[in-house]
Structures are given as C-alpha cells and as structure tokens.
Design goal:
Elements lengths: L13 H7 L30 H7 L1 H9 L11 E2 L5 E2 L2 E3 L16 H7 L13 E5 L2 E3 H6 L5 H25 L5 H25 L5 E5 L6 H13 L6 E5 L12 E5 L5 H13 L11 E4 H5 L15 E2 H5 L3 E3 L5 E3 L2 H10 L2
Antiparallel strand pairs: 1-2, 3-5, 4-7, 6-8, 6-9, 7-8, 9-10, 11-12
Helix pairs in contact: 6-7, 7-12
Family: Belongs to the UPF0696 family.
InterPro entries: Bles03, TIF_eIF4e-like
Pfam families: Bles03
C-alpha cells in the first residue's frame, strides 16, 4: 500500500508556492504560448508609489513574464473532415525537444529517470525542474493558444488587487477601533467578489492553466516521480508534469511535484486527473488532501496568508472528490452554498 503523502494544510503550502512559481527559462520555450499584448484600461488608475509598482517589482513576476510557461485552456472536442468522417482530436506535440532537463519523445521514461535521477543532488545541474510531457495535445488546445495573454491578465489582476486594498482602507476608516477580525468579516463579500473577478479575468485572457500539487517525502520521491512521469508520458494525466530538483538550502523533507491540467474551468478534466492520481496511489480519498492552484494566482504572487486573505488554492482534493466545489465557465467557484449566498445577497447580483 502506498505511503500516505505529507500534503499538509493551507498554511504549510506557503513555503512551497514560491518554488511552484519558478518556471522554465529557455531562449525558445515551445511550452509557452503568449499572445501579443493587448492594451487594457485598468479598473483603477494607480500611482507610481502604490501596490501596483510593488507587485511589478518582484523578481518572481519578472521571471514569469519572461517565459509564461503555461498551457492554454482547451477541451478535447472531435472534428470532422471534408468527407464527414470524425477526425482525431489529438495532435502530436514535442514541446521540450532538445531541452536537457526534460524527457525527449524518443527517450523511454526509464532512460530519462536514469539520465536524471530525481534523488541525486547532481541532477540540480540540469535546472530547478525536471519535466515530462505528453506527446499529444487536444486539437482545440492548439487553436486556443493564440488568445492566451498573460500580460493582459497581470494588468487586470493588479488593478483588481489595488482596488480591493483601497476598499479595505475605506472600510477600516469607517470602522476605526474595531478588531481586525471584524474588518475581515466586513470585507468577506468584497473578497469573494475579488476572487470571482480575478478568475473571470483569467478566463477572458486564456490564463487558465493550473496544477495539482503533490509533496512526497524524500523516501517516497523516486517512486512518486516515476509513477507521475510514466502516467504523463502515456497521456493519462495532463499535458505536463514537473518535479523540483535538489536544493541544498531547502531543509524540508518533501519535494514539490506539479501535475498540470489545461483549464481550471474544465471540471471534468480536473476531476479526471485527480481520479487518476487516486488510482495511482498518489492521493488518498480518506487521507490528507492535496491542493489545486491556478497559474493566474501564481503570476500575481497570491500565496497562503496573503494580504488580501484570499484562499491561495482553488480547491482541495477532498472538495472535488465529494463534489463540494465546482468552477463555472466564467471562472466563478461554487463551494457549497455559503459563499455564493452571502456574496450575491450583499451585491444584489
């Protein structure tokens, strides 16, 4: 029986999300599909010395702007050719061709794991991540790639975050002397709306890639990575999976593995990948949960215990397995009835 994975809770995810934000840096990254930037009017005009400048100044955001190594959203839909016959909905992909830290399509998984053993400190010389991809992508995925615009999302997202901070300042001024917990409670409807607006912006700009995060111990790491690598290469999981390499400064007895999906609004695909992780013994239905995070939040530096008090992950494995969380096509997340009822009532939506 597979050992239970030390997934941790929301608070312990904070120390990992900075590592999850690191992306592949290549002169030419075939995994990045960033459309030409569109100029959008921000929701709020910010000054040079406000939070907008602070967000843009972070090395994490600058690095992610360089590569935008995300997978655009798509759903597997079949097409028909001129003869009326149904055409295959999958196309061949070799996004990591020539990249030393990734499995090559003409390389067996065993050969890749022997070439770059994940538990060997020397493997870190290849880079901070090891990558495995599926050799096929949905036809609709390729068509959708042209409209992904990470820069446009960041611009919209930063404006939304700035507007939220200004609103919180107003609420604090109107309730001077009240306990922080009271202010947090007053801000809850605004926070729910902020989450909806951020995810809606992610959908409208095609920034919908996300990942299930696994945290195996050093003892379980080789087995976990082998299982994930094999399943990804066989097309059983998502388009790409990655694992962190050895870091001498990291004293934690766990390593992050990210299993990507195309689109966080595709509930069926997100659930399908999770079910596969359960079937593979990497996640337990009755054990500690794992969490799903969208890349959109990573681009904005939204981690656990953030200043906006947003939930850093979209949902946990427990919520998805129990059908307690659902994402609508516009990006809004429904978690039971508590949040949606309170928010809709407050804003009279």
């Amino acid at each position: 029986m597979a050992a239970e994975m030390p997934a941790g809770d929301e608070t312990t995810q904070a120390q990992w999300e900075q590592e999850a934000a690191r992306t592949l840096k290549l002169p030419h990254d075939p995994f990045a599909h960033v459309a030409k930037r569109r100029k959008l009017d921000p929701a709020v005009k910010g000054k040079d010395d406000n939070v907008l400048t602070f967000l843009r100044s972070r090395p994490q955001i600058a690095s992610m702007r360089e590569v935008a190594a995300t997978t655009p959203a798509a759903k597997r839909t079949s097409k028909r050719n001129l003869n009326g016959d149904e055409a295959a909905d999958l196309l061949y992909s070799d996004r990591f061709k020539g990249h030393a830290a990734a499995r090559q399509q003409d390389e067996t998984v065993n050969a890749f794991l022997k070439r770059l053993p994940v538990a060997d400190p020397a493997t870190a010389n290849a880079g901070p991540w090891l990558w495995v991809s599926s050799s096929q992508i949905p036809r609709a995925q390729k068509q959708h790639a042209k409209r992904e615009d990470v820069d446009a999302f960041i611009e919209q997202g930063e404006s939304l975050l700035e507007a939220f901070i200004k609103r919180r300042s107003t609420v604090e001024a109107e309730n001077h002397g009240k306990a922080p917990a009271t202010i947090t409670r007053y801000m809850r409807p605004h926070r729910d709306k902020l989450e909806n607006d951020l995810l809606s912006a992610a959908v409208s700009t095609g920034t919908t890639c996300g990942k299930w995060m696994l945290f195996p111990s050093s003892e379980d790491l080789p087995r976990f990575w082998r299982v994930v690598a094999e399943a990804t290469a066989e097309g059983k999981l998502g388009p790409v999976s990655k694992v962190g390499t050895y870091d001498p400064l990291d004293k934690k007895d766990a390593t992050l593995i990210c299993v990507y999906t195309y689109d966080f609004t595709d509930n069926d695909d997100v659930r399908r990948v999770l079910d596969q992780l359960v079937e593979l013994g990497l996640c337990r239905r009755d054990g500690k949960p794992i969490y799903y995070k969208c890349d959109a939040y990573t681009y904005l530096g939204i981690a656990s215990e953030n200043t906006y008090k947003l939930r850093a992950s979209l949902f946990s494995s427990g919520e998805v397995l129990k059908n307690e969380a659902k994402v609508l096509e516009d990006g809004q997340i429904l978690r039971g009835q508590r949040k949606s009822t309170a928010t809709d009532s407050f804003f009279a939506l």
